[in-house]
Specification:
globular, twelve-stranded mixed beta sheet, alpha+beta, 34% strand, 6 helices, six-stranded antiparallel beta sheet
Length: 351
């Protein structure tokens, strides 16, 4: 699961742009025994093999950004290359509940439950579907048998606790202090609490709490705390979880009567792995690193998009999108700088 969903978190959403806090539990879970060291819990999480499960995920954010309802993004997501950026902004500013299902690397389903609507992303073997109930519109593609798993999945699911946890754990290096917090209960499962705390004073991130299922090592939830905030700035957690294979019928998607169906061109073996874009330049290391995207690599039309102009405020040398966990600076010459650092650090790096 951790490799399958990684492509859904865009590079612009740096590790700081993920978290939130109220831990919802289901049935009362047995409190796990205290492990000897944080390293034991790290090994448990790194070695988990849970690829079959179903559950409900809740995501909430308190990033200091205005709420962006999905209907406000409909024009962009339906006809613009900026759709993915708009979707990520929506996910980071609007609470979401999603049903998720997985049965190995080629059977996945995500149902994002909007108000009086639903959005689905389904992969069943080589068949890939997306569906928006509000627009009553679906897209379908048939993947080649040789398509790699990580590049052949639906394009708009929510960010799952497992994916977030693996991203943070992979990035935890010498710049991070790792300790154990109090045991917890999420979705009826007992969990250890790993606490990742940046050693740098130059980052906006105070700590990241990862809740690791005590028996399997499956990450149940992630809370990210910003400095000077008592509640998580971003929270993603299972509120219901069954670590068993879902019914096969869950992945058999058929568009409802009257739905508009768009058949997308199936990728060939040569196009299944698209050429990687130029890597952005990175300054610094760890939590206070700053990523710079040159103007030549910025998607066409992004800087002039109404959504970007609405959210980014004028600053010296460009426009800035600021939150409690991450800042983004768009310079007048078209560059984009981002990091989990104060805006002043981005402005200094842009000179």
């Amino acid at each position: 699961m951790k490799r399958i969903w990684t492509r859904w978190l865009p590079a612009a959403a740096v590790p700081a742009a993920i978290a939130v806090g109220v831990l919802a539990g289901g049935a009362v879970a047995e409190t796990p025994p205290p492990p000897a060291t944080p390293q034991q819990v790290l090994a448990l999480a790194a070695g988990h093999a849970a690829q079959q499960f179903s559950g409900v995920v809740e995501e909430k954010a308190d990033l200091g950004l205005p709420s962006i309802p999905s209907q406000a993004l409909a024009p962009a997501t339906s006809s613009s290359s900026l759709g993915s950026e708009a979707s990520i902004l929506e996910l980071l500013t609007t609470p979401h509940t999603a049903r998720v299902y997985a049965d190995g690397p080629t059977k996945l389903r995500v149902q994002i439950m909007d108000e009086l609507a639903e959005r689905d992303a389904v992969r069943n073997g080589n068949d890939v579907w997306t569906f928006d109930s509000k627009a009553n519109a679906a897209t379908h593609a048939t993947l080649p048998a040789t398509a790699p798993h990580e590049n052949a999945t639906p394009s708009a699911p929510p960010i799952t606790p497992d994916q977030l946890a693996q991203r943070f754990l992979a990035a935890a290096d010498s710049t991070t202090s790792i300790t154990l917090g109090p045991s917890a209960s999420l979705a009826g499962h007992g969990a250890y609490t790993l606490v990742l705390s940046p050693k740098s004073a130059g980052t906006l991130v105070a700590s990241v709490h990862i809740f690791v299922e005590a028996k399997t090592g499956f990450p149940l939830g992630v809370d990210v705390y910003a400095k000077d905030q008592a509640t998580p700035a971003f929270h993603s957690a299972f509120t219901q979880l069954d670590l068993a294979a879902p019914a096969a019928s869950v992945f058999a998607f058929t568009p409802p009567p009257g739905a508009t169906v768009k058949q997308e061109q199936a990728p060939t073996e040569k196009t299944a792995r698209p050429a990687a874009p130029a890597k952005p330049a990175a300054a610094g290391k760890g939590w206070d690193a700053i990523v710079t995207l040159p103007a030549s690599s910025v998607p066409a039309g992004l800087l002039d998009a109404p959504l970007v102009k609405q959210l980014a405020t004028p600053v010296a040398g460009g426009r800035a999108l600021s939150s409690s966990l991450v800042n983004v600076l768009v310079t007048n010459d078209g560059r984009i700088l981002a990091g989990a650092v104060p805006l002043s650090a981005l402005e200094a790096a842009a000179k």
